[in-house]
Structures are given as C-alpha cells and as structure tokens.
Amino acid sequence: MLTVGQLARIFNVSTKTLRHYDAVGLFIPASVGGENSYRYYAPDQLGELKRILFLRSMGVGLEVLRELKDCGALHDDKRIKRILEEQADTIRGDIERQHQLLQSVVQMIDYINHAGRLEIEPRIVKKSAFKVVGMEWQSAKSHGSIPDMWERFNMREHEIRNKVKPDVAYGICITDHEQEFSYVAGFEVHTEELPDGMVSITVPEQTYAVFSHRGKLEGIGKTMNWVYGNWLPQSGLQPVLGMDFELYDERFLGTDNDATEIDLYVPILQK
Asked: Is 218 within a domain?
C-alpha cells in the first residue's frame, strides 16, 4: 500500500491536491487507518490517478472527471476524445478572445505613441446637410493614392467659386453597401458651378461623434481603428454606413507636422 506522501512524490503533485481529490470523491484511498486515519492507496490505483492528472493537465474540470468516474467512463477513450475535442474548441475560443484583446492593447499603445495621450473625448454634434465641390478618388477605378489626388487638388482648388469657408477643406469618405469606397477632397460651396473634372456631392444631415486627430496624417488610420474598434463599441453608440469626413482648418499645419490637428466626423445613429 502507498501513502499520500509516496503518491505525491511519484506523481510530483502536492498532498493537498490528493486530499482534495479524496474530499470531492474523485480519487478515494483503498483504505484509511483506523487509529491514525492515514490514507492508503493500492498499487492498482496508480493508473487511475495517472489518467486523472493527465486530463487535469489538459484543462478538464473536476466535475467532468467526477462524472466520468461515477459512470465508469474514466477509461472510455472514445468519450475522452469527445471531451478533449470540446476542450480544444473552448481553448481556441479563448485564444481568439485573447488575440482580439492583444490587438486592442497594441492599437492603444500605437495611439498613445502618435497622439501623446490616452483618452479620446469626442463631441456629439448634429450637422445640417451641406454641399461640397472637389476632386474624387474611387477605390474601384482611380489610379494613384488619395494623397496623390490631394496634391492635384491643391493645385486647382482656386478654381472652386463661392466657397462658404475658404480656409476649411473637407475629405469626404463614402462607403456603399457593397463596400466600394470613394473619397472627395473639396470645399463647402454655395454654388452649382462645377470646374472641369470635379464633382459635387451633398453630405446629408447627420449626427456625428467628432474626434480630434493630432499628429502626422499617416496616423489617421490608427486613430480610426481605435474609434471603430474600441471607442464606439465601448460607448454603446452605433456607427452608420454612409459619409464620414475629415475637416481641415487653421489647425492643419502640414501632413508631416506632429502639431497638426484635424477633426474626424463619424456618423452615428441618433438615439
């Protein structure tokens, strides 16, 4: 017969663990000393303990093991296989949730690095419809990049007449239900006059969450990832598919200036 201490040394577990298994009815000693109350285990119980400890190392819970033992299935390999498959699915789900958490943490670190602060404090505003005239870039057919289009537009912005605010430019982002994306760089106008090669769009009345992006424009993507991936889900606000936009005013000091600041208007469902 083997004592608790001997079993603990053989399997490299604590005596406390073995006593707990006894208390919950999972691994019960073959006999208990009448005078000293010592637990004694038979050599033929070693295989059972080995299997219990192995399954515990796989993350199988004590309740599941107790059920297996009670119904005599602790050595039923087919049933054990199903349990391990379920455990594998659970672990995969845990890994995916941890991966998503890791992405959120990394995004927050990146955001702090380029913005220099932790908190994003948006304003909730309702803005009336307005018309913008400018140049358009379309994901499905335009050549070059949006920054390339901005360079061409900057050389022709003087052609736009009757600007509402000549020192305020817009970058309008339009996503349709098929996930095609277009972008218009332009100015708000009073007029229907349309310079050659430019477009006119009307931004509808909408409620927005307005975020300030500070730093180089290359960091806008990280700010938007944080807004859509973290802030909006945590705030309980629902974004609306349609037109969001960037607002460039006197705070815009250049694309590569760390002191540049622009506003990002994200349409949300009005409560």
From this structure: yes
Is position 136 within any domain?
yes
CATH number for the domain that contains residue 62: 1.10.1660.10
Give, as one character, the DSSP assignment of residue 229: I
* pTM more than 0.85: no
Asked whether the beta carbons of 191 and 162 are under 8 A apart, the reply is: yes
CATH number at 255 reads 3.20.80.10
Cα-based torsion angle of the residue sequence 181, 187, 188, 191 in order, rounded to the nearest 10 degrees: -110
What are the helix and strand counts (H, E) for the chain? 8, 11
Do 198 and 259 lie in one domain? The reply is yes
| pLDDT string in tens for the chain (271-residue length) | 888 999 999 999 999 999 999 999 999 888 887 677 788 899 899 999 999 999 999 999 999 999 998 998 988 999 999 999 999 999 999 999 998 888 778 767 776 775 566 556 688 999 999 999 999 999 888 888 999 999 999 999 999 999 999 999 999 998 876 667 899 999 999 987 899 999 999 999 999 999 888 888 888 887 888 788 778 887 888 888 879 999 999 999 999 998 899 999 999 987 6
Q: Residue 36 is part of which domain span?
A: 2-75
